[in-house]
């Protein structure tokens, strides 16, 4: 079985739910390969979300992501990227509450969606190198 890795981020507004979220991750068949708690500057957030640059929500996104500590994790399992994104549901929490109510328990709106997941293999590789440069 091919084991794939992806990046997961517990965003600043729900870092206090880290233990609960890690329990869900482990019960969903993932292994947490690496984990670190960090506080990104607005500049680091801008670099992390470079693909979103120029979009109307970009300034609010970087402000939100630099508003407090976050937890970055490398998760591993078979088809990690697709399984993690399926677990997360839609990125807009308001949509997720309608379509995936059991998965949308932490997000509050279209920006504060509580958790991050890499979109594809290339994004996962880039994002994991960004959060875990060593």
Automatic annotation (TrEMBL):
Residues 3-134 form the Nucleoside diphosphate kinase-like domain. GO terms for biological process: cilium movement; CTP biosynthetic process; GTP biosynthetic process; negative regulation of oxidative stress-induced intrinsic apoptotic signaling pathway; UTP biosynthetic process. Pfam families: NDK. PROSITE patterns: NDPK_LIKE. Signal peptide: none annotated. One of its GO terms (cellular component) is cilium. Belongs to the NDK family. This is Nucleoside diphosphate kinase-like domain-containing protein. It comes from Balaenoptera physalus.
């Amino acid at each position: 079985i091919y084991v794939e890795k992806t990046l997961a981020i517990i965003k600043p507004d729900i870092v206090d739910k880290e233990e609960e979220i890690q329990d869900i991750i482990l019960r969903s068949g993932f292994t947490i390969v690496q984990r670190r708690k960090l506080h990104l500057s607005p500049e680091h957030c801008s670099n992390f979300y470079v693909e979103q640059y120029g979009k109307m929500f970009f300034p609010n996104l970087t402000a939100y992501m630099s508003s407090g500590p976050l937890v970055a994790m490398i998760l591993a399992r078979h088809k990690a990227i697709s399984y993690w994104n399926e677990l997360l549901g839609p990125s807009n929490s308001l949509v997720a509450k309608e379509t995936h109510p059991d998965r949308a328990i932490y997000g509050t709106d279209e920006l504060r969606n509580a958790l991050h997941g890499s979109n594809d293999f290339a994004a996962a590789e880039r994002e994991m190198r960004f959060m875990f440069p060593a």
